Amino acid sequence: MTEHLPVSARALRRVPLVGRHEELRVLAGHVTGAQVQDGPGGAVLLTGEPGIGKTRLLDRLAGTCPEHRVVQIAGVRSEARFGFAALHGLLRPFLDGLDTLPPPQREALGAAFGLVSGTVADRYLVGLAALTLLAGAATARPLLALVDDVQWLDPESADVLAFVGRCLHGDAVALVLAGRDDRDGPGPFDGIPVLSLTGLPPADARDLLAANSAGRLDPAVADRIAAETGGNPLALLRLTRTLTAEQLSGTAPLPPALPVPGPLRAHFLRRVRALPAETRTLLLLMAAAAPQESAERWRAAGCLGIPAHAADPATAAGILTREHATGFRHPVFRSAVYWGAEAADRRLVHAALAAVTDPVRAPDRRAWHRAEATVGLDAEVAGELEAAARHARAGGGPAAQAAFLFRAAELSPTDRVPRFLAAARAHLALGNPASAQAALDRAETELGPGDALLRARVRQTRTRADLYSARLTGIPARLLDAARSVAESDAPLARRLLIEGLAAAVVGHGGPGATTPYEFAAAVLASPALRPTDSAPADLLLRGLATRLHDDHPSAVPLLKRALQAFGSEDFGGEPFGGEPFGDGAFGGEPFGGEPFGDGAFGGEEFGGEEEPGWDGVPLAVLALFAAEDVWDDAGGRAACTRLAGHARDTSTLGALQTALMVQALWDVRAGRFGSARSGFEEAAELAAAMDLPPHGPAQQIELLAWSGREAETRAAAAGIAEVWVRQHGNDDFGDRARACLAVLETSLGRYPQALACARVVMENDRPGTGTRVLHEVVEAGVRSGDHRAAKQALARLEERAAASGTPWAKGLLARCRALMADDEHAEAYYAESVELLGRTGIVTEAARSRLLYGEWLRRRKRRDRARDQLRTAHRMFAGMGAVAFAERARAGLAATGEQARTRTEPADRALTRREREVARLAAGGVMNADIAVRLFISVSTVEYHLGKVFRKLGVTSRRHLTSVLDAEARLP
Questions:
Q1: Cα angle, residue 596 at apex, residues 590 and 602 outer, rounded to 5°
Q2: Cβ contact 180:151 at 8 Å
Q3: What is the mean pLDDT of residues 352-367?
Q4: Half-sphere exposure (CA, 13 Å, Cβ side) for 570?
Q5: What is the pairing mode between strands 143-148 and 194-196?
Q6: At what angle do helices 517-526 and 537-550 cross, to 10 degrees?
Q7: What's the CA gap between 761 and 749, in Å, rounded?
């Protein structure tokens, strides 16, 4: 028997469902698929205009799944400002399982629902907790979750449900969402399969009209009604009650225009206005109240002198449900009542609701009602709204926080700029840069000549809003100006502004007249905010990168090495990092030392003393990558990235984790672990999808593609980078990285002039990271193409920088380049030195290249036995990692010595899917199922499902056997 657990009153419609056979078949297949572990499961989004029948389909689906436990909720417009309200309704039947959740998930969900204090409800931890609860509930009995009117869900609940929908697989949970299809632009449910509902076909529309008409229905009248309503079932039904029997039978003419305008609102409003005045006021009061304010509605009605029986005419008219006298029969009624009322009448009912709302139990709703009842300025109400914003932020509700703060700023006689600014930052945390820009516009109009600190923060926040759209133009100059204005008064803020601006200057071209990286670096080094005694990791990184750009490479090396050491140390995340995350959570604390953001000028430290974790700003993992590449410190770079990724996992700052995973994947490429690299890129892509970020496609994997010898895909990725990232967004660093990857590809294919053309541009641009890492490519391509001048220039720069760096990676590349340009008497010693030095690093790709070049050199000198040793090893290394083009070069060289390379056997994991490979890799590494679920953002039952398939496919029975089978998997392509 189906167990219904409704948590938002929805009256079942008594009108029989007509038609919709195909839609019911699709939905039934979706529900059935969720029960089968190999089925699609997951979520489906049912869309259509108001009245099209979405709710009826959900009701029918619920009634035809007797083997399922069914939960139903619906979004309510008046609740949309209260974070996680809808999610609480959905999960309320399962909260007895709260104690079974891992502590971070339990604390986050408790904070979201107001069950615990002192913890911020991270939305993605909340999402993982919701996924775990639902999957756990489905272990005993399949679960069907139905969510109607998703267009009116609070944004936090919408994000979590979208996250859950994208992560469900093999969990016996079917999630069916329903909402209007009139959303402009991207939404939280993008990427979830959509089933669009259109109007009923003419035959079904006629059947519905006939079944609900008391008398005879003329076929021509039925056809016109069906045509003019577009087959909208609600419009059809309303017209059977609006038109006279004579009109329906065809004995009286129909009006020139049938009373069913587009969204039906005006039609509904006419019915409302026909009611008595006290009934209309009661309806307005109900529309203004949240669903959980049932008692408050009646108390407020009493304050206004409205008797309870005033609801009877609305019930008789079919506006309120008979089962629930405070429930509107259709959501459009609620909207029509509220927005069709006069502003003064809306203020009246909000004032009544505020007067009867408990300020202790429901301070947020009371503050909002007071605000909606207020005209002009009111410091007391503004203060209540700010307190409500603090409460919303603690509960992880940036949408409510932003709404409260913006309204507080509008009502404030003073402190308007800090509140508008805080509202903008909350909008950025929500991922809504357009609303953030609107709040910043309001803030700027209020700035005075003495507001230097606030002006700097406004500029910083506007820059972050620009970065959401990848607009880099003008950012360095704006941030530099802001940093100068606060360098003396707020040094930590100034350093934040400087590192954000420096990163933008390094990455983007800025256009004509823009601040150059050299100019920005000079300003950084001259800034009084940057003191020589500052030793926090970000301070060292800022000073090191500025020194590299303004002075020279050798002078920057000690600073950059110290920064990498600090980021990779065990102390990372400890005392020096005590504040809120910087950027997208990448620091995990206060990276500059000192107090975060200073003086609490935002009306309280909640809004003035910390960074919002939702900002998509400067990722530290990327800056650490620049530093590590520039000083050839693979150990320091990987350690820093591992620490940053670990801290991001621990704190569930998914934006930072996504970036760190991509950087880790790059280090895996260079270590020859192409399989691990691919898994890292895929995990990063899944996180991006879970966060509803736009996909990068193959662009982020271009280095892996180039080393894999996948020529067409590499060139396509490079073309995409040039068009989207460079031309449209001005990200020149990405363009240089694409050129460096093309140089690797061309070299692997023996096209040295083309390789030199790509690499030379990167060398001339000389950006931190790529400008140094490409030098050996210029030397090899220059020597092989006969451009010795270019090779000598690159070698001279390489000698200077390798001496300053002193790492085996640097010295190994230098030895190889010297060998390429040396005579026979000295070349062999350099090649041997290069092989030995690079063999001590984690840069396996370059170690294999040194062996390849050494073997080719030996073969050309007829020293076949020695050549075979080097070429055989090079081929084994390249083939093992999946570097196809380089492996072919080694095979051809080996064949020229008279030896055929051994054929590789197909790796054991080739039968595994991508997700199975990820689960297998973690399980083989000793990670337990619950931790795998946390890391991959799936449920434990999904982990068990995939692990079972892995065991069957690989023929193993234990994790110990799995480890032995996949021992070499990390190096597989």
A1: 150
A2: yes
A3: 89
A4: 0
A5: unpaired
A6: 130
A7: 20
Q: Residue 41's pLDDT is what? A: 56
Per the model's pLDDT, the better-predicted residue between 138 and 754 turns out to be: 754
Sign (positive or negative) of CA dihedral 239, 240, 245, 248: positive
Contacts of 368 (CB under 8 A, 6+ apart): 81, 385, 388, 404, 407
Using CA atoms, how far apart are residues 160 and 145, in angstroms rounded to an integer? Answer: 14
Closest CA to 396 of 591, 130, 9: 130
Nearest in space to 438 (alpha carbons), one of 477, 470, 402, 414: 402
The terminus-to-terminus CA distance of the chain in angstroms comes to 50
DSSP label of 639: H
pLDDT band, residue 648 (cuts 50/70/90): confident
Query: Model confidence over 540-560: pLDDT tens digits?
Result: 999 999 999 999 999 999 999
Cα 673 to Cα 106, 334, 615, 677, 725: the distances in Å are 36, 58, 32, 6, 27
Looking up tokens 């020597």 gives 783
Where b means 16+ CB within 10 Å and e means fewer, 695-714 reads: ebebbbbbbbbbbbbbbebb
Output DSSP code: residue 320. B
Measured between alpha carbons, how far is 71 from 63 in angstroms, rounded to an integer? 12
Interhelix angle 277-288/294-303, nearest 10 degrees: 140
Q: Give the closest residue to 285 by CA, choosing from 222, 348, 233, 362.
A: 348
Instruction: Classify residue 51 by its DSSP letter.
Output: T
Predicted pLDDT of residue 350: 93
Rounded Cα distance, 968 and 904, in Å: 13
Lowest pLDDT segment from 384-393, 400-409, 576-585, 734-743: 576-585
pLDDT at residue 849 tops 60 = yes
If you search the block for the tokens 């360098």, which residue do you land on?
A: 487
156 Cβ partners below 8 Å, 6+ apart? 83, 84, 87, 112, 123, 126, 396, 397, 398, 399, 400
Taking every pair of Cα atoms in the chain, the longest distance, rounded to a whole number of angstroms, is 111
pLDDT for the residue numbered 568:
74
Coil, strand or helix at 146: strand
Residue 946 to residue 138: CA distance in whole angstroms: 17
In this predicted model, what pLDDT tens digit does every residue of 720-746 receive, in sequence order?
Answer: 999 888 888 778 888 999 999 999 999
- Residues near 213 by beta carbon (within 8 Å), at least 6 away in sequence: 240, 248
Range among 5-9, 27-31, 655-659 with highest mean pLDDT value:
27-31
Whole-structure pTM value: 0.72
CA distance 620 to 583: 8
CA 768 – CA 33 distance, rounded (Å):
51
Q: Is 255 exposed, middle or buried (0-12, 13-18, 19+ CB in 10 A)?
A: exposed
Please tell me the predicted confidence (pLDDT) of residue 573: 52
What sign does the dihedral 306-312-316-318 (CA atoms) show? positive
> Taking CA 88 as the corner, what is the angle to CA 84 and CA 89, rounded to the nearest 5 degrees?
125
Determine contact, residues 589/579, Cβ cutoff 8 Å: yes
* Mean pLDDT, residues 331-348 taken together: 82
Tokens at 46, concatenated: 């049912």
Select from 207, 261, 265, 181 the least CA-distant residue to 229: 261
The whole-chain average pLDDT of the chain stands at 81
Model pLDDT, residue 147: 93
What is the pLDDT confidence band of residue 577, given thresholds at 50, 70 and 90? very low
Q: Are 419 and 410 in contact (CB under 8 A)?
A: no
Residue 342's Cβ-count burial label (10 Å; 0-12, 13-18, 19+) is exposed
Instruction: Kindly tell me the sign of the dihedral angle through the C-alpha atoms of 889, 890, 891, 896.
Output: positive
Q: Environment class of residue 777 by beta-carbon count within 10 Å: exposed (0-12), middle (13-18) or buried (19+)?
A: buried
The separation between CA 854 and the C-alpha centre of its own chain, rounded to angstroms, equals 46
